[in-house]
Amino acid sequence: MALETPVEQATGRVPITVLALDGELDASNFMALIDQVRGLYEAGTRHLLLDLSGLQFMASSGLVALHSVVRLIHGEPPPDPEAGWGALHALGQDVSEGSTQAEVQLCGAQPAVERVLARTGLHRLFLSHPDRASAIAAF
Amino acid sequence: MLAPFRGLAPSLSIAAHDALGARVGGTSDEDAPAERQIRPIVAGPLAGGSVVAWGTAASTPLAIATVESLAIALGIAPTVGSGGIADVVAARRIEQELAHGRRLQRSFVSLVAPEVPGYELASHYEAAREVGGDFFDLFRMRRRGRPLSVVIADVSGKGIAAALLMAFSRPLLHAAVDNTTGPAEALERTNRILVQERRSSLFITALCATLTLPTGRLRLANAGHEPPLIVPGDGSPVVPVDVEGPLLGAFGSLGLFEAEVELGAGDVVLFYTDGVTDARSASGERFEEDRLLAAIEAARGGSGDGRGTAAGIVESIRAAVTAFQAGMAPADDITIVAIGRHRKEGRRGRDRRPPPAVEG
C-alpha cells in the first residue's frame, strides 16, 4: 500500500527533476505527494518528470494528485480553493486547443495505470514517454 | 502528520471544541463563561471553499479549516497522533461523525428501485469505512413513455469533501438527464456546471444511460467511468459497451459520444464502480476484471441454462468480492447495478403490448 517517491535531478535542455512513484497511489497518500511537489516547486523545480515505471496502481484520488502536480509546477498556488478550479479550467482549454503543457511529463506508465489515465481522459494533459531516457531528451 | 482536529468541518466542531479546549486552555464546557467557550466563529457555505474557524468569543481564531482540508483530516482519522487524550477524544468524535456521514450518504443512494414493467432491477451498495463518493440513481424520466434512467458515479477522493460533492452532483445529474435530449448532453451540461460553479480539485466519473422500455433501446454516455458490461441472454460471452470519455470537472468541454445497444429478452446490462475491481485481498492483490467476469459466469452457470438473472449476477459479484476481501472492510465504496430484460413480458395488463422482436 505504501508509496515511495525518490527524487533525482537530470539535465536535458533544461534542468529536470525526476520524481519516481513506486508502489500504489491512492487516497491514503495522494495529499503527501501533492505536498512533496509543492516543496519541489518552492525549491526551484520548473520541469518535472514523473517516472511511473514502479507505479502498480492508481486510484481516482491519484488523478487529483496528478492534476494538482501540473498546477503546482505551473506556479498555480493550491490549495487555495478559490484559485484552483480556474487553473484547472485553463489547463483543459489548453488541451482542447491542442497545446499540451510540457512542464510535467510522464514516463514508464504500466498498463494498469495507463488504462486509468486513458479511461478518465487525464492522459490528454500529459506527454508520455516509454522510458526515462527518452523523456529527458524530450524536455 | 496533522493532528486530527486540524481541518474539521462545522459538523465536526464538537471534536474541535474538546481538542482545542485541552490544547489552548479553553474549555468545551457549556457552563463555562461565554468568552472562554470555544466554538465555530465563522462559517462559510458548505460547498467547496467554505471556511470555518474556531475560537473563543474574545480571541482571534485558533484554528481554521476549509472543506478541502477535511479530506486530509479524514484521511488520517482514525489514526491517533501523539497528542494524547485530546486527540483520542477528537478521533472518537470523528468516528461518530463519519458513521453519521455514512448513514446520510446511504440515504442519497437510490435504494428503492422504481417499478419497471418487463425488466428486473438489482443493485448492491456498500460504503467504505471512510465516507466514500459512490452514488447511483435509477428513476423513470418525465418524458413520454417514461424511459428508465440509470446514473452511476464515483467522486474521486474520500471523506466529507467527496460526500459533499456527491450530494451536490446527484441532483444536478438527475435534473440534467430529465431536461436534455440524451445522456451525452446531460453529462456535458453537468460538467459545465461543475466547472463553472465548483472550485475544488475533485473529479467525478459518471456513466449515464436511458432505456426505452418497449424496445429495450439503451443509450449510453460515459465520463471517465468503467464501461458497463452486457451479459447476453443467449449465453454468449460478456462484452463491454464501447463507450468512453473524459471525467467530469476537469475540462471545459468533454466531446462525449453516445453508444446504443438493444437489450433483448434475457439480456442483462451491468454497471459498477472501481470499488469492485480495485477491492484488495489480505495479500494485497486486486479483484480486477478477470474475477468480475468469473463471478458473472458463476451466476450464469448457477442458473442452469447459462443465462443468469440481474439479481443473481449482482449477488454473485457481491459474494465474490466479500470472500476476496476476507473480512476486511472495503477501502472504497462498492456499487453494482444490473438491469435485466425479462424473457416473457406482458403477463400483466400494464404492459399489454408485446415488445417487438429485437432486430439486429
Give your account of this protein's structure.
The complex is a heterodimer of chains A (139) and B (360). Chain A is of the alpha/beta class and 139 residues long. Chain A is 43% helix and 23% strand. In chain A, the strands form two sheets. Chain A has a five-stranded mixed β-sheet. Chain B is of the alpha+beta class and 360 residues long. Chain B folds into two domains: 10-103, no CATH class; 110-351, Phosphatase 2c, domain 1 (4-Layer Sandwich). Chain B contains eight helices and 13 strands. Chain B has helices spanning 13-24, 67-76, 85-108, 159-178, 183-197, 274-277, 288-302, 310-325; strands spanning 38-43, 51-56, 63-66, 119-126, 134-140, 148-155, 204-212, 217-223, 229-231, 239-240, 259-262, 268-272, 334-341. In chain B, a hairpin with a 7-residue loop joins strand 1 (38-43) and strand 2 (51-56). The longest helix of chain B is centred in the first third of the chain and has 24 residues, at 85-108. Chain B starts with 12 loop residues before the first helix and ends in a 19-residue tail after the last strand. Classes of the chains: A alpha/beta (139), B alpha+beta (360). The A-B interface holds A 1, 26-28, 30-31, 57, 59-61, 63-64, 67-68, 71, 78-79, 81-82, 84-86, 88-89, 92-93, 95-96, 118-122, 124 and B 48-49, 66-69, 71-72, 75, 130, 154, 156-158, 195, 198-203, 205, 224-226, 244-247, 249-254, 274, 278, 284, 286, 331-332.
